[in-house]
Amino acid sequence: MWAGCLVDGSLERRTPTEVLGCFRAVTREAPALVLLELPASSEIEAVFALHATAILPRNASDASLLRFFTDCRLRRTPEERLASSLRALRRRYQLTQAEEQIVSRALWGASREAIAETRGTSSTTVKKQIRVLLAKTPYQHLHHLAQDLLLEALFGGAAAARRNAAPPGPPRMVP
Q1: Is residue 54 within a helix (H) or strand (E), and if so which, with residue range?
Q2: Which of 20, 37, 127, 129 shows a CA-CA span of 20 to 30 A to 62?
Q3: Contacts of 74 (CB under 8 A, 6+ apart)
Q4: Structurally, what CATH architecture does the domain formed by 5-75 represent?
Q5: What ranges do the domains of the chain cover?
């Protein structure tokens, strides 16, 4: 599924209308932002006819582009955003597939015992895997990692950063 499309109007081989037309052949629902140098009214009409979400000057501010990309991210379902954040976490910290599965199950509130049962291992094995997983990340507790991942998936990275800036709550044991 496409989250969105950014079309740079300065492409040499294709016009913005051609690129947007190809994108719309794949999906009509995803937002599309077109960056144009000095658009002619016919060019503006053509890209809006292809359901462009917005048109900005090619030298648009970073804030304008960020608003568009944030909007694209929030159009995806929470499950899609969470799966994407989980894949990014795995790449960022070089987690194994087993470690990713543990985090995934923890996100849905599974206890260590439930995770062990689902994976067909002992609770002690899962406890050791959690310890190794946490050693690869800046987190001391699995529930903090899960909270930040949920915040990142639902509200973007800034929300998780704000939570990290808050005073820590009481220490808790890893389930």
Answers
A1: strand 54-57
A2: 20
A3: none
A4: 3-Layer(aba) Sandwich (3.40)
A5: 5-75, 78-165
Task: Specify whether the CB–CB gap between 4 and 31 falls below 8 A.
Answer: yes
Q: Which of 76, 10, 16, 73 is nearest to 50 (CA)?
A: 16
What span, in angstroms and rounded, lies between the C-alpha atoms of 149 and 151?
5
Torsional sign, CA 56, 62, 64, 65: positive
Rounded Cα–Cα distance for residues 119 and 121 (Å): 6
Q: Could you tell me the pLDDT band of residue 1, with boundaries at 50, 70 and 90?
A: low
pLDDT (tens digit, 9 = 90+) per residue, 12-62? 788 888 888 988 888 877 888 888 877 677 888 888 888 887 788 878 888
The class that CATH gives domain 78-165 is mainly alpha
pLDDT digits (tens, 9 = 90+) for 49-108: 888 877 888 788 888 888 788 777 767 777 777 888 898 899 999 999 999 999 999 988
How far is it, in rounded angstroms, from Cα 85 to Cα 156? 9
How far, in Å, CA of 126 to CA of 106, rounded? 11
